[in-house]
Amino acid sequence: MTLRWAALALLLLALSPRGSEAHKPSDSYLTLSQPASGATLEGRWDLALRDLEHAVGLDANGDGDITWGELKASENVVVRYAFLRLGVEALSRGEREACVLRPQQLLFDEHVDGGYAVLRFSAQCPFRPNQLTVHYDLLFDLDPNHRGLLDIRAAGQSQALVLSADNSTATLNLDSPDRWRQFRAFLDEGVWHIWKGYDHILFLLTLLLPAVVLYRNRAWQPRGSMRDALLDVLKVVTAFTFAHSLTLTAAVNGLVNLPSRLVESGIAITVLLGALNNLFPVVRERRWAVAFAFGLIHGLGFASVLTDLGLRHWDLALALVGFNVGVETGQLAIVLVFVPIAFALRDTRLYRYALMPGGAVAISAVAAYWLALRASGFGVQ
Question: For the chain, which residues make up each domain, given as ranges?
Answer without folding.
Answer: 2-20+197-376, 27-178
